[in-house]
Queue: 3 jobs
Job 1
Amino acid sequence: PRSPLDSYRIHVIRGYLWWYFQKFCFRYPKFKAMQKLTATAVKQAKPKAKPYKLADGGGLYLHVKTAGKYWRYKYRFAGKEKLLALGTYPEISLAEARKVHQTARENLADGIDPSSHKKTKKSANQSNSANSFEAVALEWSKTRRKKADSTEKRQRALLEKDLFPFIGSRPIADIDAPELLKTLRKIESRGAIETAHRANRLAGQIFRYAIVTGRSKHNPSIDLKDALTQPIKSHRKSITDPAEVGPLIAAIKNYQATPVVMAALQLSPLFLCRPGELRHLEWTEVNFAETRIEL
């Protein structure tokens, strides 16, 4: 139980606090006028037969309707009465509504129409969304020439897993080399060094498309050429022992891949040509009469 002395001290402290508060409100009367609503009053406000308003001061009020509760700011600009929507309750709390309201009042004091400022900001956000890295990448993917299904699948995975989650929503013109490098470092951190290089090359194609379509002025992927971790190259020895040829042919025969890759592997030991020559082989270079290729 509280002692009589403690009760007396609390009573005195409350008295002093109330006296200072009254003195503050007397010195700053606008403060008292601006602090009318409470969070409890806003929460407990119930719809009635007709819509009604709960004023908070300074033009800010809560419009209570059957459909919900709406924050509104009524003000005058250039001699005309205007209304600014600040959001709905409970998505926007009383404290948040007051912050937005205060910002709008400051704009008004600077000669800026809060409604026009909101529209301009909304338009800028929509423009940034339309020119985001993800939006430009999806547009680029529709305009370019399609590749093999496996390549398309790998590129989609790079975009959806490694790029979009980190820079997809960013305006493509605002992405610089350090930001792109930070994204690629995440790929490197899991040991996927080659994947990081492929992601950088893919991002470079998207940035080049953004440049020619007027959405960006630079390609940060170019600056990362020497910043990424370089993959360790491993050279495979040529088969010189005839006994090892048989297992190689068996491995080629049993290897499962796309029909094009499987055909190329099975033709390699028959033609004994370089991989590049086999990939670019044309029908005009095949001599069916003499069953040979002529490079």
Note: The mean pLDDT is 87.
Job 2
Amino acid sequence: IKECDWSSDVCSSDLATLVTGAPETTIRNVHLLAKAMQEPWGEPIMGIHLEGPFFSLECKGAHPEQHIREQGDIELFRQFFSAAQGKVVLTTVSPAIRDATSFIRQITDMGVLVSIGHHNANVEQIEMAFKAGATGVTHAGNAWSKQRPEDDRKNMEVAAQLCEEKAFVMVIPDGVHVNSTFIKYAYKIVEAVKPGRIVWVSDCSPFAGAPIGNYEGFAGQPVSVARDNAGALRTYPLSGSYLLLGECLGVLRQMDIVPERDILAGATGRSEEHTSELQSHSFISYAVFCLKK
């Protein structure tokens, strides 16, 4: 997560997000980040978000398949936490992995926030995750199961996540991860149940702003930057947003479906009474780190 000046996109602070990797790589990288936080130049790093490896394999997104773990492993998580000197403050977990409920409860008992994501969970599993202490939804609408419900009804898994009163719901409004229809109704549902829970994020890719071309992505996976059918620049496979948060908010404004006060509040946590201070606000976004061996 980043705090960025709206007028310049200059970031004042980050919640460094590490994607799924081999355990030894994650241990090394969280240790490096913890050491960096002790330096004067590392003061802007607010903490560490572990996005993975405890995901549903079919919903892994750009995360390397060989390192996904479909069972909770608190001892491994404690190794990550210890190597990070307690600087892990947020992690994303699939509610559909084995032992998810007890795993989530054990993580929250350590004082770490849990957000659910990269999953194909059913309603019962989602509800159990929230009861166990999960308080967030990571990039809602993206890296969720596309399977049709067995009983042929419209699935209720989306509603179960958006309607949880204690959960903050992160949405990437870049027009690529989710479309304007999803944003429109996700916003309406969240605001109707308990307002103020939407968090606009960019999930900013390491390739944000990169020229069109081919690159090496997470765990050596090939990534291309190209234009989609609508002419928007993006990564293939989707590996975070090509846009910085300020640019994402510009796309959201063009959709004309969310009031300005809630665009601002969802990116800063500030209420509408502060809208006149737009130029001095800080904005929240993911900063995804791709640290390799």
Note: Residues 271-293 have pLDDT under 50 and may be disordered.
Job 3
Amino acid sequence: ALDVADGNNGTFPAATYAPGMVGDSFSFDGVDDAVFIGDPANLRITGGITLDAWIDPQDISEGQAGMIVAKWAGSTGNPAIGSDAYELLIAKQGGVIQLVGGIGNGVDSDNSGVVGGTITPGVWTHVAMTYDGANGSNLLYVNGQQVASRTRMGGIHSSNINVYIGRRDSMISPLYFNGRVDEVEIFNRVLAAGEIADIYDAGSAGKCPIPTPTPTPTPTPTPMADLVVTKTDSADPVTEGDQFTYTITVHNNGPNIGTGVTVTDTLPMLSSFFDITYDLNRPAGDQPLQTTARI
């Protein structure tokens, strides 16, 4: 289970994948399936927080609950008070599955939490909870709409309990989730109502789509001509008053045509220029210049 934002990857030896709201999702059986995240430092959030996910739960019995994401022990008594930090779950009360959020402040228990909304089994639903440690504002959202609110002072307890998706860190009452969970996020700030609505409106496009790699442009080759110049003479040695010929051959090894090429040849001392000829019948690439000089 890969975390594309902060590297808090999870392990889930008993869970499987299934078609999700955005690509694949976790598929939990409600018995022993969960994703283990652990206790990374950046999830020991003590101020503002937002939890959100897409869920598609199976129906549950009256009084039953299923944990979506939690850093929570949930046992009764003082040990749990010192262990609980935050949780988001569903619970069936009065025949209706509702969203439930909990905040552990390390001082008193939060067994009742904040409750609201209606979750329909077998239907993908976006759920979210925000908590502002500065003013105690604790809100729940279902499908982009606020459905519950309360004030809970004290901030969030800095707990070393493990974070799980699909259960809480309790051997006595783990509250395994039965159904599919997708796009789970934990923010270290309070998302505004508009931001949560935007996540819901994104739907199957997702809030963290895999980016399409930008293709590497093919570089435009720089025109290049590889010229080789050779020079030969027609007679050696030469006596005073004789004419002799220098043949200068320019060969282009390519790969491009050479343009604007100038070949300069300096005659030896005590010799004078007589004439020059240019052979147009040579193979492409070999262009000889014949220069006749007199000593």
Note: The chain has two helices and 17 strands.
